[in-house]
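Homework-ish question, so no full write-ups if that breaks the rules, but can someone show me the predicted structure for this set?
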Amino acid sequence: AIRMTQSPSSFSASTGDRVTITCRASQGISNYLAWYQQKPGKAPKLLIYAASTLQSGVPSRFSGSGSGTDFTLTISCLQSEDFATYYCQQYYSYPRTFGQGTKVEIK
Amino acid sequence: QVQLQESGPGLVKPSETLSLTCTVSGGSISSYYWSWIRQPPGKGLEWIGYIYYSGSTNYNPSLKSRVTISVDTSKNQFSLKLSSVTAADTAVYYCARLHEGYDSSGYYYWYFDFWGRGTLVTVSS
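A: Not a homework solution, just the prediction itself:
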């Protein structure tokens, strides 16, 4: 199985900050990567697929980049509703696997 | 708007079989893939498997020997059975619609676009 490793596991940030989360795959996955946001007690919500394509309805402050093994999720100007846990997920091969999550907390 | 709702026992004894059903409303179960994902308390997400409305399945090898996913198109439902459970199977179980294909730019996508609220299943005697 492809292992997805996110960094950092958690960090604190302030509203208005630009934040970047990294996801690394244990082998090349082309651009077959999705990003999800999960808030406490809620199901995950799709943000990005194909590494950089914003899902319809997702604010443009979210962006994704990368290909191969290294990927990033960037939030250009952190809003209060963005404090959550973010997961990457590869769909290059089976079994589909997720990163361990990155929790973005309020500073 | 498609909605999904998990149902089933919240407590299962060790060595027994966990059984959950997901009821789909606001749309037909036909022409899509349907999936189960779980999340142990305070931990990350694990894909369990999917079923196509026609009945074809794909399971995570880590669970394959214990998992069965089935579909009942007449009821717009699909189900999960996980046998021989242990405490390690304690988790929130989500059902979700799996959407896959190629977008207008030619990019391949495979993602979960609609999710249930999740149901906590605890394995304990």
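Now go work out the reasoning yourself. Hint: Chain A touches chain B through 25 residues (CB under 8 Å).
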